[in-house]
Design brief:
The structure holds two protein chains of two kinds. By secondary structure, chain A is α/β, with parallel strands linked by helices. Chain A contains 16 helices and ten strands. Chain A folds into two domains: 269 residues, Aldolase class I (TIM Barrel); 98 residues, no CATH class. By secondary structure, chain B is an alpha/beta fold. The interface between A and B is large, with 80 and 79 residues. Chain B: One of its GO terms (biological process) is DNA repair.
């Protein structure tokens, strides 16, 4: 076979990387290139473009190679798949990153890889790419390296020294799912590697406190990804797994990726449209736990009998409809925690309510100025001139508040 | 003069700003006006290039405060919002800023009142300017041109054309200097230009689109990347437009692809689903239905050879299920599993171990015979991992109906059909492996393997095979005893 040129390889290896959801470039240490090198990170991530799938393009997200000795059923790059294969050298990836970076297309690189030869060999190539960028070109932009849990801990440690963020995918929410669909992977090993990362980050932070020039280790922390809809795990299983991961490994983010029908799909998997709405609801529940003070147990209470979150309404509204005794809350008296529970009030609106009510007794029209939809929040609030009577007792409240069905369809499309 | 006197006298002040983004100048004038108690409706702020002399009849020179040290109060929050809002393209922004500053003198905590119309407006302006700046960081696209300096040395010059909505160019220069300090770059806009030579930042006059380079070879790579990273199975055009409104598209090389990507997405998704779709969405619920369906199965190329599907056989509810690799030549002709030479080896082994084949359900991991034609003979070919995985659907359907407690896999292909991964027989044999449905899997060699050996190797393998079957028999007896 004739050697592929760079543009063809880029096509194959970017295509192979698109099932990784994360493209974040935020939350790392601040750097600039005034003292040399190229690149900067200023805390806030930047999305340099958006694809028609609505996702942000912040990083050059590619695989070093899509050759793989593993055979995970949900993955397009599995050994038994018939996709075209290609392979970049670390130098080619570094050059491509710089070509894009100089033209302001990207914030940096998100590099992952299929497993070639061995886990260690693959990890060495990933680390080498980061080394070329950091040491030979003094690249100061963002680097996210996917690490391979089976690789030598010393190599994984090297990755953390070059990268802003490291990640290891847990892939599936249950161990049974992992055994069935990713037979070459091992849940114990994955979690062991995440634990190792957490320790290394903690140690680097301690050292940084004592020694100014101590090396940084993955300043943007670690994240992981779970595939939704490839196995039978319910939303309650997924939310439970995510919250355990947040607690145990201090993860910055758990990403969810709706399982997409992939070309050359394995026969073991369900073939249907990716459950985008379900993915969206899971992200909403993730937000409830991270920013709204919901305990995982409470999010699970919002699920329906089958353990899944309702698709027609958001999880916060689902929770409120189930626990109507907590409502209505008085906008002029309620605590921050109580206000955060009101469906339709976001963190910003709550902060604004708390600030404004020092100056005036809030009426419904004042609240309306601070929220997107007053008709949505009204049933759950008491204001100076408003009391919802017995609206929260109405049996048809859900139907009143759920978005119209055809809107939902549009959104899902 | 007091505020009341200003109103009575009908005095009117016009402040001409030297630059539309000169916040420092505005701040100095505003401070003096507040110190002189000039109310907001007595001041007009005029940007350079603004038309009309609407207020010329009342124009007055700046008043001089009696006490230049009189404090003018402004909260931190106000100042941080005002710095951004001053860059907005809204011609009324300076009047708004002054009105707020005026009101802050009597109500220093006014900025906390988020329901106030002026407070809301300044927050809107601030937000719009911050967004414009953020989009500039994101959407500026440099194009590289090779240039030569005075000494004839070649260097790379990166040039971008950008059209910001607000007066942010000068303020945002710092971002590009920090990021691209070692590059030579220029940003051209309709309101002015910036040039960085690696050491010094210069400002230049307004430019036109035609002044910027028209292309860059790297854009082909970038467009390839953009098209490839897009997942056609998920189309969310609204989400894209919200963050990347069309007004920015004309200066971004990748956006020319969007209409085609969107149009192709639905087409590609249905193609993707159709390519992999199994015609049987629902698992058949009876063995007869499976039998019928496997004869029509063409999910892998084996089904298209000149052969027939061979269904498993045995009683419903059999405790033992025996799974082979695939039907051979004779099985294909007979339409029954394990009737050829390998079947005879299996039968002999089962008999020796004391297992009654008639009480077991016997089937194959792959339902059709895979072969290559050599003259008149059809030579057996091992199925690929993908073919086994595709056919796993049928074997699982059988297992769900028969519900065996123990499954015996003969050979590596059968083991893969049950486990979804390739295992080594030597490592897996002799120990039960738990399966999803609570049953247990035992693995041994395929009888045809024994047929291919001879001498001591055959004796050794024969012994191991017999030992495996004996272990299975023992386990079956334990199961029969257990309640």
């Amino acid at each position: 076979m004739a050697a592929l040129d760079i543009i063809e390889k880029l096509g194959i290896l970017a295509d192979a990387a698109k099932y990784d959801a994360s493209c974040a470039s935020s939350g790392t240490a601040k750097r600039n290139s005034k003292s040399g090198g190229i690149g900067s990170t200023e805390g806030m991530g930047i999305c340099h473009a958006y694809a028609p799938d609505g996702r942000c393009i912040s990083l050059l997200k590619i695989l070093l190679t899509n050759h793989c000795i593993f055979d995970c059923h949900y993955c397009i790059n599995r050994k038994s798949s018939n996709v075209r294969r290609a392979r970049f050298t670390p130098q080619e990836v570094a050059d491509l990153t710089l070509t894009f970076y100089r033209r302001n297309y990207i914030e940096g690189l998100f590099l992952s890889s299929g497993i070639i030869k061995s886990s260690n060999h693959t990890m060495e190539l990933l680390v080498e790419t980061a080394r070329i960028l950091r040491e030979e070109h003094d690249f100061r932009g963002y680097i996210h390296l996917k690490t391979i849990p089976e690789a030598d801990p010393e190599l994984v440690h090297q990755a953390g020294l070059y990268a802003d963020r490291v990640s290891i995918n847990v892939e599936l929410p249950t161990d049974a799912g992992l055994t069935r669909l990713a037979p070459d992977k091992d849940a114990v090993q994955i979690e062991g590697a995440m634990g190792g990362m957490k320790m290394a980050m903690k140690q680097a932070k301690d050292e940084k406190k004592r020694f100014k020039h101590a090396p940084r280790f993955a300043p943007a922390g670690q994240s992981t990804q779970m595939i939704v809809g490839a196995d039978a795990a319910s939303d309650a299983d997924i939310v439970g797994k995510a919250s355990r991961l947040y607690d145990r490994f201090r993860l910055r983010r758990v990403y969810y990726s709706a399982f997409s029908p992939i070309p050359d799909a394995s026969a073991v998997l369900p073939l249907k449209r990716p459950p985008l709405m379900r993915e969206h609801r899971l992200y909403q529940s993730d937000w409830l736990m991270r920013f709204y003070g919901f305990a995982p147990r409470e999010v699970m209470q919002a699920t329906e009998a089958d353990g899944n979150l309702p698709l027609d309404i958001d999880p916060k509204l689902a929770w409120a409809l189930k626990f109507r005794e907590h409502f209505p809350v008085d906008v002029n008296r309620a605590s921050r925690e109580q206000l955060l529970r009101v469906p339709g009030l976001g963190t910003k609106a709550v902060a604004q309510i708390l600030a404004s009510r020092r100056h005036r007794t809030l009426r419904l029209e004042d609240v309306a100025k601070l929220t997107v939809s007053i008709s949505r929040v009204r049933p759950f609030l008491i204001a100076a001139d408003w009391r919802p009577l017995t609206l929260t007792d109405r049996a048809d409240l859900r139907a009143l508040l759920a978005p119209r069905q055809e809107q939902l369809e549009l959104f899902a499309a | 003069m007091t505020a009341l006197q200003h109103v009575k006298l009908g005095t009117y002040y016009v402040v001409n700003l030297p630059d539309p983004d000169d916040f420092a100048f505005w701040r100095e004038r505003a401070r003096a006006l507040v110190q002189c108690d000039v109310p907001p409706d007595r001041v007009a702020w005029v940007e350079p290039g603004a038309t009309g002399s609407l207020f010329s009849h009342g124009e007055r020179r700046m008043p001089v405060p009696d006490d230049p040290d009189r404090p003018v109060r402004a909260s931190k929050r106000y100042l941080s919002l005002a710095r951004n809002a001053a860059l907005h393209s809204d011609p009324d922004r300076f009047a708004l800023l002054y009105r707020l500053l005026w009101r802050l003198q009597s109500n220093p905590r006014m900025m906390e009142d988020k329901a106030d119309a002026d407070v809301r407006r300044i927050e809107e302006l601030d937000k719009a300017v911050r967004r414009d700046a953020h989009k500039m960081h994101a959407f500026v696209r440099f194009r590289m041109v090779e240039e030569r300096d005075e000494e004839g040395q070649p260097h790379e010059h990166y040039v971008a054309w950008f059209e910001p909505d607000h007066h942010i160019l000068r303020r945002e220069a710092g971002f590009f200097v920090r990021r691209f300090a070692s590059m030579r770059w220029s940003i051209l806009t309709p309101a002015g230009t910036l040039h960085w030579d690696g050491e010094v930042l210069r400002e230049g006059p307004p430019a036109q689109r035609g002044d910027a380079p028209q292309g860059d070879p790297a854009e082909d790579l970038w467009r390839k990347y953009y098209a490839s990273i897009f997942n056609p199975a998920r189309l969310k055009i609204g989400a894209m437009l919200k963050e990347m409104p069309k007004k920015y598209w004309k200066n971004m090389p990748e956006t020319a692809l969007i209409p085609e990507l969107v149009a192709g997405a639905q087409r590609r998704e249905s193609a993707m689903v159709a390519a992999g779709e199994l015609e049987f969405a629902e698992r058949p619920e009876t063995l007869d239905a499976i039998d019928k369906a496997i004869h029509a199965c063409r999910q892998c190329p084996i089904g298209s050879l000149d052969n027939q599907a061979v269904m498993g056989e045995g009683p419903l509810g059999a405790v033992l299920m025996i799974v082979g690799e695939q039907p051979g030549d004779q099985e294909d002709l007979a339409g029954r599993p394990f009737v050829g030479p390998a079947g005879q080896v299996l039968d002999a082994g089962l008999e020796e171990a004391g297992i009654d084949r008639r009480r077991a359900y016997v089937t194959n991991a792959v339902k059709h015979f895979k072969y290559v034609q050599r003259g008149k003979r059809r030579l057996h070919q091992s199925p690929t991992a993908k073919e086994i995985d595709t056919c796993r659907w049928w074997q699982e359907a059988e297992r769900a109906i028969v519900k065996p407690k123990l499954v015996l896999a003969l050979g590596a292909s059968a083991a893969r059909g049950l486990l979804g991964k390739t295992v080594s027989i030597a490592k897996a044999r002799g120990e039960p492996i738990p399966l999803d449905d609570g049953s247990e899997l035992w693995v041994t060699a395929h009888p045809s393997y024994l047929l291919r050996l001879d001498g001591p190797a055959r004796e050794e393998q024969q012994r191991l095979f017999a030992a495996d079957l004996a272990a299975v028999k023992e386990r079956l007896d334990q199961m029969a005893e257990a309640p």
